[in-house]
Amino acid sequence: MSAETDVASGGVDLADVAPAAARVVTAIEKVIEGKRDVIKLAVTVLLAEGHLLIEDVPGVGKTMLAKALARSIDCSVRRIQFTPDLLPSDVTGVSVYNQETREFEFKPGAVFANIVVGDEINRASPKTQSALLECMEERQVTVDGNTYHLGVPFMVVATQNPIEMEGTYPLPEAQRDRFTARLSMGYPAPTAELDMLDTHGMRNPLDELEPVTDAIEVAALVRAVRTVHVSDAVRRYTIDIVTGTRKHPDLRLGASPRATLHLLRAARAAAAIDGRSFVLPDDIQTLAAPVLAHRLLMSTDAHLSRRTAYDTIRDLLTAIRVPVDSAQPAGR
C-alpha cells in the first residue's frame, strides 16, 4: 500500500483489517457460541459503514449479539428499547427552554453514540421508527431547524421479531433500505446450546467481555476498507444482479441504487476481513442475500406460490454469468 493511502486511513494499513476483525469476532464468540458466520457478517457491516438489522423469533440471542458487538469496541453505546409509546424526540433529542438563560437548549437523544442498539425496533410506531431515517443515511440529526452531526463511527444495530408476531409494526420501506444487511440468528446447535447452559447458567459472559478495539481504530479500519480494489468486471456483475431484481416477475419492488452501494461496500469489507486487497465475485454472491433480500417486495403471485426473496436472489445468481476477468489488479 502506498504512503498516501496509509496516511489517508489514519496510519492503519489494509493488512491490519483482518487481524483486528478477527479479534472482534473472537471476543463476540465468547458470548454468542456456534454462530461464527453470523458474527462475521455483523463485523463486516461495521467495517462497511453500515447498519445491521437482526430479525428472528424471541429468545435466540438477537439483543445479546448487538450488545456483544457494541461492548467489544471501547466507544459510546446507547440502547433504545422501542415500545409503542416511544416518541421521535426520545430518539433524536429535543430543545428544552432554560428559564435561567431564557434560551432553548438542545438535549441530545439516544442516537448520539457510536453504537446505537435498537431493541425490538418494530414494536414502535412507524412515526418513531422514521426518526432514524436522517441519522442512518446522513449521520446527522436535525431538530428545530438546527443540524447536529453524529460521531464516527456510527452504527445502528436493530433487532426485531418477525412481522407476524403479535404487537409489531412493519418497518417502512425507506428504513429497511437504510439497513445494509439483515441476518437471522437461527436456533443454536445442540452442542452450542449445551455449552450455553454451562456458561450462561452460572454467569453472564457479557459482563466479562473486554473491548478489543476502540472507536478511533474502527474509524481508521473503515477508511482502510475503502481502498479495497473493485474491478470493472465485478462492478458490472454487481449492477447486473441489482438490475435483475428490478425486472424479475416475482418482485413488485426491486433493489435501489443505495442497495448497490451497500453491496459493494460490504464486499470490500468482506475482502479486507479475509486478508485480500481486492473483491471477488464470491464476495458479491455471499453477501447478495443478506444485503438485498430485506429490500425486496414480492408480488402477489409469488406470495401465493410461497416464493421468497431468497429464492429470487438464488435464481439471479444462477442465471447471471460470473465474470472471469475479475482477478486482483496488476502489481498486488
What would you say this structure looks like, in words?
The chain has 332 residues and is α/β, with parallel strands linked by helices. It has two domains: 16-227, Rossmann fold, CATH 3.40.50.300; 228-323, Orthogonal Bundle (Helicase, Ruva Protein, domain 3), CATH 1.10.8. The protein is built from 15 helices and 13 strands. It has helices at residues 3-8, 17-29, 36-47, 62-71, 88-92, 126-129, 133-138, 173-176, 190-202, 215-225, 232-247, 257-273, 281-292, 300-304, 309-319; strands spanning 52-55, 73-74, 77-81, 93-98, 103-108, 115-119, 140-143, 146-149, 155-160, 181-183, 213-214, 251-253, 297-298. Strands 3-6-9-1-10 form a five-stranded parallel β-sheet. A hairpin with a 4-residue loop joins β4 and β5. α11 packs parallel to α13 (281-292). The longest helix is centred in the last third of the chain and has 17 residues, at 257-273. It is globular. The protein starts with a helix and ends in a 13-residue tail after the last helix. The relative contact order is 0.16. The model is unreliable at 1-9 (pLDDT under 50).
Topology:
Elements: H1 3-8, H2 17-29, H3 36-47, E1 52-55, H4 62-71, E2 73-74, E3 77-81, H5 88-92, E4 93-98, E5 103-108, E6 115-119, H6 126-129, H7 133-138, E7 140-143, E8 146-149, E9 155-160, H8 173-176, E10 181-183, H9 190-202, E11 213-214, H10 215-225, H11 232-247, E12 251-253, H12 257-273, H13 281-292, E13 297-298, H14 300-304, H15 309-319
Parallel strand pairs: 1-9, 1-10, 2-11, 3-6, 6-9
Antiparallel strand pairs: 4-5, 7-8, 12-13
